[in-house]
Design goal:
single chain; 284 residues; mainly alpha; Four Helix Bundle (Hemerythrin (Met), subunit A); two-stranded parallel ribbon; 10 helices
């Protein structure tokens, strides 16, 4: 009997010891902590905004140069039409005109190219800062290399004073703005910038007769718009309808291969894009 009690007592001690050990293990087990939200995006870097603004500056200066060239061509046509009359009246008016030209100040075209050259350098500076930030945010090496290549192409075209090529190259840099923005917080969908890229590319390429590029851009623009449209807030319904109409009109102009009408329709669509940005909550 005593032996039985000893065995039972021994078993009871073992059971208590095992229970205590289990309790201690439960207490030592670390409480699971919430994982940090790795999908949370960084605010848009100021350098990205600066590059975007610099591209706008280059394109605006390019448009000034285009208008100046068109004005000169119109003036030459007028002078050519009046040339026979001037020849009949003698050479006095011609000599006076020559003296006036000598007294004129430096042409505004040179000032625009100076602005473009300086702005291109600023883009290089800001990209050197932005590139590692974008890489840290998750941008791929291929994307970063594409941006660098586009900026270098812009530099080459602007240095050689190739106006149309410079505007197209500046717009190609802009194309990557939306892709870089995908890795940061934005106030409106980055794809809206893709709409602007394709719209401008249609304008610039149609003006030099590259209708194959313009036609491809129309198709790409329609694909982007189809994806973006369903993501827009309800408040953007009116702006969305306007864009639908504007896109249809632009497509007709491209199909007709009318560069004058295409430019007008492209300008209208740019206004519609600004309305989309505003309706989507952009501060721009």
């Amino acid at each position: 009997m005593k032996n039985y009690q000893k065995v039972m007592y021994f078993l009871l001690v073992i059971m208590i010891a095992l229970q205590l050990s289990a309790c201690k293990n439960k207490q030592k087990k670390p409480t699971p902590q919430k994982k940090p939200n790795i999908t949370q995006k960084m605010p848009t870097p100021k350098e990205l905004t600066k590059i975007e603004n610099d591209i706008e500056t280059i394109i605006k200066e390019g448009q000034k140069l285009q208008e100046s060239q068109q004005s000169k061509q119109s003036s030459k046509s007028s002078v050519s039409a009046l040339a026979p009359q001037n020849q009949q009246q003698g050479g006095k008016s011609t000599s006076k005109g020559g003296n006036k030209q000598k007294q004129q100040k430096e042409p505004p075209e040179k000032k625009s190219w100076i602005t473009i050259d300086k702005t291109v350098k600023d883009i290089h500076t800001n990209w050197n800062v932005l590139s590692p930030i974008a890489a840290k945010a998750g941008a791929s090496t291929d994307l970063l290399n594409n941006v660098s290549t586009a900026i270098n192409t812009l530099t080459t075209k602007s240095t050689n004073k190739l106006l149309n090529d410079t505007m197209i190259a500046a717009n190609n840099v802009y194309k990557y703005i939306s892709e870089i923005e995908n890795y940061f917080k934005t106030t409106s969908p980055p794809d809206i910038k893709k709409l602007r890229f394709y719209n401008r590319d249609i304008d610039f390429n149609s003006s030099i007769g590259k209708w194959d590029v313009a036609t491809k851009d129309i198709n790409d623009l329609k694909v982007i718009w189809k994806t973006l449209k369903v993501k827009l807030p309800k408040d953007a319904k009116t702006a969305s309808d306007k864009f639908d109409s504007g896109l249809s009109e632009l497509e007709k102009a491209v199909q007709a291969k009318d560069s004058t009408i295409t430019k007008i329709k492209s300008n209208v669509l740019e206004s519609d894009i600004k309305s989309l940005e505003k309706a989507s909550g952009s501060k721009k």
